[in-house]
Amino acid sequence: MFGQVEVIVVDDDTDEPLVGATVIQGGAIMSTDVNGLVTVGDNIDFVIEYIGYDSFIYSTDDLFENKISLNRTEQLLKTAVITGSKYERSLERSTVSIDVIKPQYIESINAIAVDEILERMPGVQMVDGQVNIRGGAGFSYGAGSRVMLLINGLPALQPDAGFVNWTDIPVENIAQVEILKGASSTLYGSSAMNGIINVRTGYPTATPKTEAVVSYISYDTPSRASFKWWEEAPCAVSASILHKRKIRKLDVSTSAFYYSLDSYNQFTYQDRFRYTLETRYRYSDRLNFGINLNMNWNEGSTFFLWGPRGGHWGSESTAAAGKRFRYTIDPYVSYIDQYNGQHKINSRFYHIDNDNNLDQSNSSNNYYVEYQYLKSLDALHLDITAGMVYSLLITNSALFNDQEFRARNNAVYIQAEQNPIEDLTLTAGIRYEYNSLNTPEFFLGDTIQDIGRRDGALISRIGANYKLSEGTFLRASWGQGYRFPTITERYISTTFESFNIFPNVNLKPERGWTAELGIKQGFAFGGFKAYVDISRFWQEYDDMIEFVFTQDAAGIGFQGQNIGNTRINGYEIHLASQSKILGIPIRMFGGYTYIDPEYRDFDDNELLQNSLSSEGPENILKYRTRHNFKFDTEIEIKGIKLGANIEQTSHMINVDAQLEGFNGIGQYRDANDEGFRLLSFRLGYEWNDLSLTLNLKNALNIEYTQRPGLLEEPRNLGVRLAYNM
Fold this sequence. Notes:
- The model has no long low-confidence stretch (mean pLDDT 86).
- It is built from six helices and 44 strands.
- The chain is mainly beta.
- The strands form eight sheets. It has a 22-stranded antiparallel barrel. Strands 10-15-16-13-14 form a five-stranded mixed sheet.
- The longest helix is centred in the last third of the chain and has 7 residues, at 665-671.
- The protein folds into two domains: 4-73, Sandwich (Immunoglobulin-like); 78-724, TonB-dependent receptor, beta-barrel domain (Maltoporin, Chain A), CATH 2.40.170.
């Protein structure tokens, strides 16, 4: 008889045990335990597989100290993602569309904030800081995102407004960014109707790491000289330092970041500083806990619409200056019980203090706690994720007529994922969410109805992924979405220049669903490795919320309204490749997205028709572009990296008709009605511990806008220098 040998399976970089790795020996299938240990037969070859890592055949004769180190895979389809299920899954097995961004790309384009990365991803569009996925949203003037932002699985939207503060995210310590396209409210709740951006930060490895980065960006003269308002060239400087290390059982990551901008837009500047601290104490193989801290100071000014001279000249009456201070404190604990069920408690205290010169200041505190239970039932090939959420928001703001509001959110959810046969993955989930809002009975003369104070919804999702053949995966999914309006959408009351923003205390929640059918095909021949993903999607919303132009006795302005029922359908083609051709590493990704966004009750709504800018008018939702193409490539020759990026976007057909009458916005849109094509290049080189990157953005120096009244950056050259210690 053969003897038995106990081996431990670890990550090659971090030397940490890999829990749940699959071990196949003969006819037996086993898994590593919570300590990364498994017992195998001596002198019998065995295979070890783990999501996101290369698989190999081993023999006990080859072992050193009974230890096996697995390397993270370079195969695109094997990339591990967590957003779709809260378990790590390979990209190929996902039942929904997920794109992944690695830190190497973030560094190569000298991204100062995460929104600069997202705007280069297929199917994603940034409109003045607001992220939209496949046309699921238009432009909401900084309130009410339909895309949920997560940092390490915790919601990170500004709670009172549902707004993303991109500068809060530590780009200097990102391990991976995952973009989930489509409704995922069952796991992540309100604001995940249109998709999820999940930012995962990096833990320390076995070797301590310190990285210092400085960068400088200089902006060129616009192609139209009359749009230049400055004498000295606008510029931006930034500096960051990151340190990560293990101290026995304690993992520590800390970073500091500074950024200063003298903008190409008049009346616009920024000075900001960010500090982060992340800790994890590995008390035992079953218990770890820690606390994370993120602090942000920001002082700056910006304008909402350009002035009478257009372009980069600002409208001083719409300019707002202020100081902002935000911080989050995130305690957490994770415990694996004797039955290998994992219990997690994630919590957050989020404080916001914004001081604005236009009587638009606000202050809020948010308390958030979530309990999760994850359990794998190996005999049934079933993984279960369940949890409960409690959130309390307390806010007082000049924007809300100096009244205090308290908003509560409670939710319970469960999702199951099963492999009934080897090549089939099935997913089903359900969530109940209840929202309550303590408000006065009357607000600025309006009576607040009950639906403005309390509402709940039961939502569900299903999905399937089937491996048709080697490298070919077919998926289908359907998921419901639900979003309770933010306090800002309902109760904001402010004025700038001749415009008002009116409250709408009886704004109703919006509901919807997303369906998708997709196929992912991998290719590998010679040194060429790639996959093509083709998807057909369909989204429908009831009582969709958008800010629309309105007029009453108090004047003209914008108000959050339920615009009715909408439909957005389309398709997307996505390519990703990581190859070697003639020994030269080549990386490519890109895609084309087409959407057809329309009002389902367009013909019966004359008020809606009159609010659209297109003649006719044309039935297409506001602030969307039907065609969007993006492509990025990079090659490496003798340590020199050369990259290029192209983005082509069609014309935004409909905006608010009344907005076009302000400072020539309508005339500018008429003269620039063919969309835009943006081209950028980059050059990088590494030697020893230093790396230097040059980025030329908007190389052709074109004029373009992402939304009316705001001209985007002219041609600019950035220099990034990084030193690893």
